[in-house]
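Lab notebook, bench 4. Still working through the backlog of constructs that have no structural model yet. Next entry is a single chain of 303 residues. Request: give me the structure tokens for it.
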Amino acid sequence: MDHKSFLASLSAEQCRDLTETSDRRGLGYLALHFGAIAVLGGLIVAQVPFWPLLMLPQGILLVFLFTLLHEASHQTPFRSPWLNTAAAHISGFVILLPPRWFRYFHFAHHRYTQMPGKDPELATPKPEGWWQYLAHVSGIPVWISHVGTLVRNAAGRCEDEFVPVGKRRVVGNEARMMLGAYLALLLGSLALSSPVLIYVWIVPVLLGQPFLRLYLLAEHGRCAYVANMLENSRTTFTNALVRRLAWNMPFHAEHHSYPAVPFHRLPDLHRLAAPHLKVTEPGYASFHAGYAPEMNGAVDPAE
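Model written out:
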């Protein structure tokens, strides 16, 4: 059974239940995520004993706002559209990823998942050697990419095929506003001679990015170049803490099969889709342990 057949097997009532959004559920998750960031940030600012060690968990929480940005791009974390828009802009700002631009990028990824030449995620090849793997996990290439995207868009040089020509001015304005806000924060920090942003935001996101890279590589890495979402995307089984941190996106094949399902209903969708999943992994350590031995060989996901 492919994902289209699976979706066709769901009743109208099941579809209504699965796609019901909720401000309450979304705000509950948001409060925990933002609350943890605020608590750790406060402890770092107060320089409690061993405070530098807190920059790593702070960074992991910050970079995993990507998963909130991702969800908000689908307008599913909250019932209220303005909450989805606000969540996308805040999350994108923290990780230097313009939310409007990312929405166009991500929708093209969903439309052409694992289709070489069409899926924009495949424009950057998955790592196939140890040096590529280490560079990928370091997070350095993605930061360079994010900054490059912001600068190109701000300069009015957005030529990405997935961005509609009529929306490129809006994308450019978004980038200019983000760069202006970053400059204002920089000047404010210099005026106050305050290193707070360095310790609460900049250093933590640099430390946390490798964990997001390891997580994201499992979503489609080594998956087949086919149209079936149950086969070209991977569901990774993990603990409740990681699922909460990632807004339930480890249920990734389920998400790609039915993107309209909000994060809090993905476990329910998983129970229905589980017998039909083609690519699963018992954990992220297991995925990377299996990924690494293949890096020296030319492995074709379609085989």
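Notes after review: The chain has one domain: 3-294. Residues 298-303 have pLDDT under 50 and may be disordered. Flag for follow-up if needed.
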